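Hi team,

Below is the intake form for Glycine betaine/proline transport system substrate-binding protein from Alkalibacterium putridalgicola. Please confirm the fields before the structure is written into the shared record.

FORM ID: S-0412
PROTEIN: Glycine betaine/proline transport system substrate-binding protein
ORGANISM: Alkalibacterium putridalgicola
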Amino acid sequence: MNKTTIKLVSLASVSLLMAACGNDDTAAEEDTTVFEEMDYTITGIEPGSGITESARNTLDTYDNLDGWELQESSTGGMMVELQQAIENEEPIIITGWQPHYIFEIYDLKILEDPKEGFGAAENIHTMTRTGLAEDMPDATAILDNFAWETEDMQQIVLDAQDVPFEEAAQTWYDENQDLVSEWTDGVPESDGQEIDLISMPWDTERASAHVMSLTLENHGFDVNVTSVDPSVLFQALAIGEADATVTPWLPMTHGAFMEEYGDDLVDLGPNLPGAKSGLVVPAYMDIDSIEDIPAK
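The structure came back. Fields below:
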């Protein structure tokens, strides 16, 4: 092919592209084709999980999601499909949540959810057993001061994909002494007083438990950390078998447990604001809201 032919082909291609961009019907057809490629399917995680139930509620909430299907899988399966789609720059919609380390790896966005099919944004709270403030005022002060951001937690969980959680938490702790010092500022060091932290077996909560354990240990406390299911966690705090936790998600994820046990424990308030779940897409997809998804 000679240079003149190449130029003519290039100009024709540009003209076609400009015409397509200027034609709303054509653009709509192209958008529809993108979602047809996905077979109008949302990639989910385990059946019975809270986010899966929220996703099903969302399908019923939005008229434009009529005909869409939720593909229940596993968290690992969802991650594999997301990775493959991004490597090939293909369209994909997943059920996701933040904090999660995938937001540190990939450029993703949680779609706006104006009808709150997934519920409002949540906060991760710090809670103690009744009476801890009187028994251990210094530990309670540190727990009450504890506050960090989504990116902090995500960084630890990301690093923990390659090293043990303890090592990942230690690295973050060492690199963020300015923030840690805000939690312990003015609090007298302990002389070895024991404190029992209780956590959950989620990676994000393992991160916060390890960081709080390091903070208390380096301030002279003897810390024990136990990881249990959420129902056991709330019950243990309510009956005084554990001293504190930095892991509950409210108002939705653990709201039922709070209704049952909330009167028998102390909520010190959020330590991480803006935790949320929803439908997640790669940033290269040209949609920003669940309402932008076309009906089948």
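SUMMARY LINE: Residues 3-21 form the longest helix (19 residues).

Thanks, M.
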